[in-house]
Specification:
Elements: H1 11-16, H2 21-32, H3 36-45, H4 52-68, H5 71-86, E1 89-91, E2 98-100, H6 104-125, H7 131-145, H8 159-169, H9 177-187, H10 205-214, H11 218-224, H12 233-249, H13 253-256, H14 262-277, H15 286-293
GO molecular function: oxidoreductase activity
InterPro entries: MPAB/Lcp_cat_dom
């Protein structure tokens, strides 16, 4: 049996293990909130308003398990997610219509908002990805869609397909009062009890939230109107995103892991054992493993060398 859901040589590992994923995850939540029905499901059924950080950490756990968890672990998590979704329903106050959380349209939107946010943010932050690798990532994530109850054929399998989906969906997106409030929560979230020791450092979160907002498509930022649009904002956002990534990369892994739930860290520890048994060198952690197995040598051409800012919005441009 394969030791992890996604192989360490996959583009999924290259993207999901990058520390700019904190910005990507928050951006995904902000983008998802633009769907007027999806945000009602979150608003009415989840603890997002009281614990938006908890929702982000749960998303991080799902991403972790469906990346380097064991197939058995990922299947069990997927079954729990599907079981919870089957039991939940909510009413759209704008139409009075009753919706199930596991409706195909809603699941596809959440999936595509996440995939596009993860891909665009990490690429813009400086992760070197060729055009072929970007397509491969979208295709690899089609398997992840199965864990929430979708078929791989339900979701885009390439960047052009993903771009067409987002273009087709955009007319149905809008900023509701709940969506705007959700963005405000994400810019200044409540610190969960398990991370109470970080409360004095809460102001350090704002750059992460502000960067997540700044990396949204221009039309989405203008619609939200939560933060001002500044001249040269796009270039500044890219430079800041790269600086934040560089700073996070300097944090030793033992301290960085304190940000995650115990279950997420435990899953990573178990993955290390499986990879060691499979013949991988993991003594220096996943990031060192990734660097040896995934990155091209300096002489190999890429579409976005680390010292050259990549094009903005590879999906939504």
């Amino acid at each position: 049996m394969q030791p992890t859901v996604a192989a360490p040589e996959s583009v999924t590992w290259k993207i999901h293990l990058d520390r700019s994923m904190w910005v990507a995850g928050v951006r995904a939540l902000m983008l998802q909130a633009l769907h007027p029905v999806a945000i009602q499901g979150v608003w009415q059924l989840s603890d997002f308003r009281s614990d938006p950080t908890g929702r982000l950490l749960r998303t991080a756990h799902f991403v972790a398990v469906t990346t380097y968890g064991s197939p058995v672990e990922a299947d069990a998590l997927g079954e729990r997610v599907r079981r919870v979704h089957r039991a939940l329903a909510f009413t759209d106050p704008a139409t009075g219509r009753r919706h199930r959380v596991d409706e195909r349209e809603l699941l596809v939107w959440v999936h595509c908002a996440e995939v596009s946010s993860y891909l665009e943010t990490t690429y813009r932050a400086g992760v070197p990805l060729t055009s072929r690798e970007r397509d491969r990532y979208v295709d690899e994530q089609a398997r992840t869609a199965g864990y929430v109850g979708l078929d791989p054929t339900d979701v885009p399998r390439s960047v052009p397909d993903l771009r067409r989906y987002l273009t087709r969906t955009r007319p149905s997106l809008r900023v509701t009062a709940e969506a705007r409030q959700a963005v405000r929560f994400l810019l200044w979230p409540r610190v969960p009890d398990r991370l109470a020791w970080l409360a004095p450092f809460k102001p350090l979160w704002f750059p992460v939230g502000a960067l997540s907002y700044a990396t949204l498509p221009g039309w989405a930022r203008r619609a939200y109107g939560v933060l001002p649009e500044l001249p040269g904002g796009e270039a500044a956002a890219t430079a800041s995103l790269r600086a934040l990534r560089s700073t996070l990369n300097r944090v030793p892994e033992r301290y960085y892991n304190l940000l995650f739930d115990e279950a997420t860290v435990r899953s990573a520890d178990e993955a290390r054992e499986r990879l060691l048994e499979a013949g991988y060198e993991v003594a220096n952690g996943f990031r060192a493993l990734r660097a040896r197995t995934l990155f091209r040598p300096p002489s190999a051409p890429t579409n976005a060398p680390p010292n050259v800012p990549p094009p903005r919005d590879p999906v939504e441009a």
